[in-house]
Amino acid sequence: MPELPEVEVTRLSFAQRIAGARIDGVRMGKPLRWPLGCEPEQLVGQRVLAVRRRGKYLLLDLSEGLLMLHLGMSGSVSFGSPLAEPGKHDHFDLVTSLGTLRLHDPRRFGAVVFASDEADAAAQKLLGRLGVEPLGDAFDVATFQQALKSRNMAIKQVLLGGQAVVGVGNIYASEVLFLAGIRPTTKALRISKARAALLHGAIRQVLAQAVAKGGSTLRDFSNAQGEAGHFQLEAMVYDRAGLPCRVCAAPIKSMRQGQRSTFYCATCQKP
DNA sequence: CACGGATCCTGATGGC
DNA sequence: TGCCATCAGGATCCGT
Predict the structure, then answer these.
(1) Cα(A178)–Cα(A185) distance, rounded to whole angstroms?
(2) Are residues A163 and A92 located together in one domain of the fold?
(3) Which of A70, A81, A180, A266 has CB 3.0 to 4.6 Å from A202, enough for a Cys bridge?
(4) Is residue A74 in a domain?
(5) Identified catalytic residue from A17, A53, A56, A183
């Protein structure tokens, strides 16, 4: 469910409401991808100062530490008071004076990890190698062109890799390449500067628009207040194999790249 | 180092 | 209460 826009929409939906809250308790369900990294009691009594985002991670700044949340493939967050009794896929509750933050994650590829601060080894392991934020000023055309020049890999794989830029997941990778007119299999280092500039613009445009519209998701995305996103109504290629291209009417093609499905229009997107 | 693949887990879907 | 194969929004880890 969660690519960068969904994570950001989730953040926006509860960051203000949880700010200043005192942590009163922690409830853990089944194990997630990684252990919490501290005793749950260590969190109790701390304050949640702010909620930030880095890539697809939600970062809760605590009065004495940092709590990193990742939604994996199937995670979603809700925040409210009171919340219903935890269901079988609710694997982490942070009970606070202002409401309960709950991670619901059927596949359990998500994680909640504590670090004493951002320089902590636990934080560096997860955040240390992340690329530049696509919606920030540091994501400039020249740097992006440079990053592509060194990669002898299909451009779609580079986008998913998270080193040239973070936050582009499997859905938006197909969408962004369609908008830029670039075939997903094109090697990154063979993309001209002009086309790299187009791709750079497409990434910013698509992600920013998805955030503005409340996040995407084909099936079940909703923010922490339970409101659904609308981007799925506008996918140009993702999950549209065999359907006519919205621009040229040629049938959308699908293929596998690195165990992930890719969708593209062979007419609109050039190698 | 760069790259490709296996891997974690549960649920939905479709073919037979 | 049918069974089995395939696929799903991520990304780390490991072998080459």
Answers:
(1) 12
(2) no
(3) A180
(4) yes
(5) A56
